[in-house]
Write a structure and sequence with these properties.
Elements lengths: L5 H5 L30 H6 L5 E10 L3 H13 L5 E4 L31 E3 L5 E4 L2 H22 L10 E3 L1 E7 L1 H14 L9 E3 L4 H7 L1 H4 L8 E6 L3 E3 L1 H14 L3 E3 L3 E7 L5 E6 L7 E11 L5 H8 L8 E12 L2 H4 L4 E4 L13 E7 L2 E12 L11 H5 L5 H9 L2 H11 L3 H11 L8 E5 L3 E7 L6 E4 L2 E5 L5 E6 L7 H13 L3 H13 L17 H15 L5
Parallel strand pairs: 1-2, 1-13, 2-10, 6-15, 13-22
Antiparallel strand pairs: 3-4, 5-9, 6-8, 7-8, 11-12, 12-13, 14-17, 14-18, 14-19, 15-16, 16-17, 19-20, 21-22
Length: 559
């Protein structure tokens, strides 16, 4: 007998057994009978069971790269501690840590111009640049590399090529002023052990520039002065994949991750412990009271709201300025393969630090793309999947004056954001062509970026409101609650931030002395007598060894 045709095998008639109802429908949709027990008082009034009560040692709010790092580190230091992590979305690392919600740069200061401040001569000409900030950022990223090396060697992270790749970092100067800046920056940095591998491509070295960054040079006016520096120790990091991998390791060690769970309140109990109220869409009441001795708030922009709910005075005066925008991405393989580098350049004169544009090679979930931006925009949300009422909820009597003061002193940021909001597609293409002169408009797609809640607070020196770029750890007086505020370079420096959290919150506890040898094993350059991420006491030979060892283990040795 001939086999039935594909159409016959994929279709059925009304009398087919799978389409028969078997009589009229009666009772529950399941085969079990309806419960016969009478509902209790709470069930009769509220339609569910009483709120669940749980007690653990540590609660982590949010499942981004910071909670992942703090949680995994604490779980290794205290394997017997019970820990719970709450995330309101359906997967870890889907807000700021998501691969398309950040630039994926392993921020080490190799190319970012905003980490080197200009120092002028009396006549207004450029004298040099400062290096203290760029050194600190690089030291912090080397701490991250060491911890990731440890996790990889101990089998807690998957193959490194699923989340990190070697990528040359190039600082670009276009035009006379920017060329001068890049040269001064190189002179100030090249002799430091952290940046000893930095190379320079001067304006007259056109062929070298074409080798370093072909797309940057294609179609460019040969008379336009160009200068570049390159550091081959640069990286591209898929922080979304890294976050998921860390949280998988956290769970394998006994950590408890709860997805689709929203934290609605944080309050201190009379016994000194914290009660974190959570809500889910469940068969019971949906509510739970979760008690813990220590709470870490790694909830991105919502960290401010959570710390305000906790009522700690240390957060008084703080507010957030949420900034969002778009990336332009190119997925054309013929273009992507010509630009396996990251290129940063200075912004326009007077532009705020966060406006520095960049053209990045990215690998996200195994997909190779180019990413350009950011094109800024304004929002009232503190998270990409937040609420338009976030900023209004965070506005309190104690932060109104600092907010007004900070905004009045940063009107250039508002101007820049408004210009980007109303910039046309051709206007954005013009910005891309400043980097890549032959950019084809059909190759570029605009996608939403994540939200960055920049810190507004009182200036410690003047008491006036200020806008702070970067991140800050805010800790309650007794160290039992801690949260991370701010934005970039948070993911790159997540390990130093985690160490800072542990030192601030547990430094005076008996456990900390017991943890020190383990922390030294995780991050060999760490020392309890210096600030987290500080490597001032590390010799040039050890710096070179860190680059070599971490590069070999993570597969990011310069090519």
């Amino acid at each position: 007998m001939a086999a039935p045709s594909l159409e016959k095998r994929l279709s059925a008639t009304a009398d087919d057994s799978i389409n028969q109802l078997g009589g009229s429908f009666r009772g529950s949709s399941m085969r079990v009978e309806k419960p016969k027990s009478a509902p209790g008082c709470f069930q009769a009034i509220c339609g569910g069971t009483p709120p669940k009560e749980r007690e653990v040692d540590v609660i982590l709010i949010g499942a981004g790269v910071m909670s992942a790092t703090v949680g995994l580190m604490l779980k290794e230091l205290e394997p017997n501690w019970k820990m719970m992590m709450f995330e309101r979305l359906g997967a870890p690392g889907e807000e700021s840590s998501n691969g398309f919600n950040n630039a994926g740069t392993g921020h080490a200061g190799f190319m970012e111009p905003n980490y080197t401040k200009e120092v002028k001569n009396s006549d207004g000409s450029l004298k040099t640049v400062t290096t203290d900030k760029v050194e600190h950022v690089c030291e912090q990223f080397l701490s991250s590399r060491q911890y990731w090396e440890y996790l990889t060697k101990t089998g807690k992270l998957p193959k490194p090529d699923t989340w990190i790749h070697q990528t040359n970092h190039i600082a670009l100067g276009v035009g006379k002023d920017q060329v001068e800046f890049i040269k001064k920056r190189y002179e100030a940095m090249k002799d430091h052990p952290l940046f000893s591998s930095m190379e320079i491509c001067n304006p007259e070295e056109k062929e070298k520039a074409k080798q370093w960054a072909p797309l940057i040079m294609k179609g460019r006016d040969p008379n336009e002065p160009i200068c570049m520096t390159k550091v081959a120790h640069g990286t591209d990091v898929d922080y979304g994949a890294l976050t998921k991998a860390k949280i998988t390791a956290f769970q394998e060690l006994g950590g408890d991750l709860r997805l689709h769970t929203e934290v609605t309140d944080v309050k201190k109990n009379k016994d000194g412990k914290w009660v974190v109220t959570t809500k889910v869409n469940g068969a019971g009441s949906g509510w739970a009271y979760n008690k813990a001795k220590f709470v870490f708030v790694g909830a991105g922009g919502w960290a401010l709201l959570m710390l305000q709910k906790a009522g700690i005075p240390e957060v008084n005066g703080y507010m957030a300025l949420p900034v969002t925008g778009d990336w332009a991405i190119c997925q054309n393989p013929e273009v992507v393969c010509q630009h396996r580098v990251k290129v940063y350049a200075p912004g326009a004169p007077g532009a705020p630090p966060m406006s520095m544009p960049h053209l990045d090679y990215r690998t996200i979930g195994g997909k190779e793309v180019l990413l350009f931006g950011p094109f800024g925009s304004m929002t009232m949300k503190f998270l990409r999947y937040g609420s338009v009422t976030d900023a209004f909820k965070a506005l309190k009597p104690h932060n109104i004056l600092p907010t007004a003061g900070a905004l009045s002193r940063n009107l250039s940021l508002a101007v820049m954001l408004m210009k980007d909001v109303f910039k046309s597609a051709m206007g954005k293409l013009h910005d891309i062509r400043h980097y890549y002169p032959e950019a084809d408009p059909d190759d570029w797609v605009f996608i939403p970026a994540g939200v960055r809640a920049q810190i507004i607070k009182k200036d410690p020196k003047t008491g006036k409101g200020m806008l702070q770029f970067g991140t800050e750890v805010v800790t309650g007086e007794n160290g039992t609650i801690c949260g991370l505020l701010g934005a970039s370079p948070g993911a790159s420096t997540c390990v130093s931030i985690a160490l800072d959290v542990i030192e601030k919150c547990f430094g005076n506890t008996p456990e900390f002395k017991k943890w020190s040898p383990k922390l030294k094993t995780m991050i060999p350059s760490w020392s309890p007598d210096v600030a987290a991420g500080d490597m001032k006491k590390v010799t040039p030979e050890i710096v070179k060894q860190i680059y070599t060892n971490t590069g070999g283990t993570l597969g990011i040795t310069p090519k």
